[in-house]
Write a structure and sequence with these properties.
- The chain is α/β, with parallel strands linked by helices and 277 residues long.
- The protein has a single domain, classed as Divalent-metal-dependent TIM barrel enzymes (TIM Barrel, Alpha-Beta Barrel).
- It is built from 9 helices and 10 strands.
- The strands form 2 sheets. Strands 1-2-3-4-5-6-7-10 form an 8-stranded parallel beta barrel. Strands 8-9 form a two-stranded antiparallel sheet.
- α2 links the parallel β2 and β3.
- α4 crosses α5.
- 42% of the residues are buried.
- It binds fe (iii) ion (FE) (2 copies) and zinc ion.
- The site of one fe (iii) ion (FE) has 4 residues, from loops.
Length: 277
């Protein structure tokens, strides 16, 4: 069974997200740990988390994915911007210990002219300061479209970060279909080839989650504009090959398409259908 869900708003807390997921037929979901602009996180209540876990067991929901604010930049040039990313990630990871079986996804960052190599060094340095041996959460690097000076635009850059992380067994990768397509990986004409390359460069055992998005732009555009499933340049046939690919079987899929809840409900039903026949 395809474990698919979508990005949900965290504004009403954990239980509300689980209830919404159940309502729209989602078997998982993603949420921002705090306002995406990176403000203060509100208190996380144990009762609210327990109530969410109760809905998880009755509704078959699992593997929620926490997403760091996308404005964090762990490889910024400015010290303050970098420390803010470090402190926010450290705080998020401490809080996430309240949840069993959760993963934490973040955008590696933008090197802002320092060069990819320096960016990679700074990102790994941040990770080496926020990870600890006893933590339960797996931390995921998201593959990026290569907009501006984004780091993580190639599988090689992702691998280079992982190689520099001391507790690298705490780390995995989230592959965003819109981002890798925009970065120039042709998942429409050659999905097998792209996944084979991911395996050679990073290792498929590192792949822990998929962000399932269509793209408004052609491959190699480095734009990062998500489109509804089947309405963009990736298209429905390629989406079907992705959700049924044997190498991706069992992974959780998260939609980040431009939709309200009704749109997500339809996409989830469509993709479940495609994966079933
Ligand atoms: Fe993301
Ligand atoms: Fe994404
Ligand atoms: Zn994106």
């Amino acid at each position: 069974m395809l474990r698919i869900g979508c990005h949900l708003s965290f504004s009403k807390g954990f239980l509300a997200m689980a209830e919404t997921a159940e309502e729209i037929g989602a078997a998982t979901f993603q949420f921002f740990t705090r306002n995406p602009r990176g403000g203060a996180a509100k208190n996380w209540e144990r009762d609210d988390i327990q109530a969410m876990l109760d809905v998880f067991s009755s509704a078959g929901i699992a593997r929620p994915l926490a997403h760091a604010p996308y404005t964090l930049n762990a490889c910024a040039k400015d010290d303050h911007v970098r420390s803010f990313a470090l402190e926010t990630m450290a705080d998020d990871l401490k809080r996430l210990e309240m949840l069993p079986d959760v993963m934490y996804n973040f955008h590696p960052g933008s090197h802002v002219g320092q060069g990819a190599e320096e960016g990679i060094r700074l990102i790994a340095d941040t990770l080496n300061r926020v990870l600890w041996e006893e933590m339960h959460t797996t931390v995921l690097l998201e593959t990026m479209a290569g907009k501006g000076s984004e780091v993580g635009r190639s599988f090689e850059e992702v691998r280079a970060i992982l190689d520099r992380v001391e507790l690298s067994h705490k780390m995995g990768v989230c592959l965003d279909t819109c981002h890798v397509w925009d970065a120039g990986y042709d998942i429409v004409a050659d999905l097998d080839g792209v996944l084979g390359e991911f395996d050679r460069v990073v290792g498929l055992e590192r792949l822990k989650a998929i962000h399932l998005n269509d793209s408004m732009n052609p491959s190699g555009s480095h734009k990062d504009r998500h489109e509804k499933i089947g309405k963009g340049c990736i298209g429905l046939e390629a989406m079907k090959r992705i959700v049924t690919h044997p190498a991706l079987r069992g992974l959780p899929f998260y939609l980040e398409t431009p939709n309200e809840l009704d749109g997500y409900r339809e996409e989830i039903a469509l993709l479940k259908d495609m994966a079933a026949d």
